[in-house]
Fold these 2 entries.
Entry 1:
Amino acid sequence: MLKKTSKIVLSAALLVGFVGVAQAEMTREEYAVKFRRSSFTAMTWYYGAMSRMAKGEMPYDKALFARNAEYVAFLSKLPKDGFIPGSDGGDTKAKPEVWSKADKFKEANDRMESEAAKLAELAKGGNLDALKEQMGKLQKTCKGCHEDFKKKAD
Ligand code: HEC
């Protein structure tokens, strides 16, 4: 029993140590930028396969589509946590409006999360036409927010 406890304490200490090292080279704000950009990248990765299935570039695989839609629904909840105060500078394309129009930014996040959740729900049914329509709705939330809150590629 004692052995087990000390093992848990040790791994917790290692984990804290590891995170500490990973963040040591960056400020918390820089890490937040990296985190939100990475979560958008991960979300887009899973969205990509669904997109290829929708376009017929890849055979429709109901289980894979449904799994990816679940991942996208989950991942869509992550980026907002990375827009911490003070993380408006550095290696970012976020516009200052993310912070100055925080309510509007939150609404845009909510829209994405709710359309992504609907897509995951629909994906269980396996009607590709319905899925394509819902993907269109989800994409609108990406586009809308990028127009208002993301600087154009340079
Ligand atoms: C609530 C606003 C919002 C929504 C909704 C949104 N984005 Fe973004 N997205 C941003 C902002 C802001 C950035 C810039 C982040 C940065 O550079 O710090 C960004 C960046 C990105 C990036 C670039 C990541 C990188 O490498 O830097 C990708 C890819 C992306 N978004 C994909 C999507 C997709 C796909 C959707 C819809 C499923 C989506 N986004 C929805 C605001 C949003």
Note: The CA atoms of residues 39 and 108 lie 16 Å apart.
Entry 2:
Amino acid sequence: MARDTQVFNAGTAVITGAGSGIGAGLARRAGALGMHVVVTDINEAAAAQTVAQITAAGGSAEAERVDVSIPEELDRLAELVFARHGEVRLLINNAGIETVGNTWEVSAARWEATLNINVHGVIHGVRAFVPRIIASGKEAWIGNLSSVGAFGQMPGQTAYTVTKHAVQAFSECLYLEMELKGLPIHVSAIVPGLMRTNIFNAETSAGEPGNATGHRRAMFEMMRDYGMDIDEGCRLFLEQMAEGKFWAHSHPDMSEQIIGGRIRFLQEQIPPIMPDLARQIAVE
Ligand SMILES: NC(=O)c1ccc[n+]([C@@H]2O[C@H](COP(=O)([O-])OP(=O)(O)OC[C@H]3O[C@@H](n4cnc5c(N)ncnc54)[C@H](O)[C@@H]3O)[C@@H](O)[C@H]2O)c1
């Protein structure tokens, strides 16, 4: 029997960006395993929909509107969750956005939003929750959404790639801080490969240049046609987290290949390696 059925069969789970995609899949899986899930998202209706899916399947959940780009909202969330439930066993800092466009063509506001949601959202999730988790004296699991993009370079997705490298580094240091302090808090970097989500929904997002549309559409279609089923990927993530693994992959082979490229890049100190895909879908 997989360890997740023992580790995540009770207690409170808090998941950001859980109104859609991987966050929603993780919320459904945590609910199915027996946890009470606090489903948070900037999109209140989407969060409510995930809650409805969990309760329809016999699980327990509640929705909270939270914008992770605002640190005070994460403080408020942590306060509220501990006041209501007194503990958090599973925290997943998942909310994230994609940003497409050549570095110099993405607006300042879009750069800021990407960094605030994808990086500061993760950092402040940890900053707000960890002191309370420590004070509770209970064992806990924290997963931060990294990506295979954390190990390579993807021109045209520079803003996004920067944030995923940052989340990966943050998670590695956080893991070591827990180890140094001897705290019973397990940290994982969740590394999705290609999952069938809406992160590249075919529209251009505010602050992206008009020439981003083709790249976005190509990525969206690739995920739709070749992406892993969300629920299957999320089952794998929680299984690996329950085993106490730092690395939680959906596509171990893809991770290995991209990490292998990074190792070569660093060891041989060659110039950045152009991914094949980048040429096919280059932003004009
Ligand atoms: N889909 C993949 O293949 C893939 C690959 C690697 C990494 N990831 C990472 O997984 C995470 C989830 O992505 P997804 O693919 O499920 O995307 P998605 O677009 O389907 O879901 C993201 C969710 O985050 C929410 N969100 C956006 N801004 C927010 C904010 N400021 N505050 C709170 N919630 C906010 C959205 O409303 C949405 O519900 C992201 O961090 C992403 O970088 C995804």
Note: The chain has one domain: 4-280.
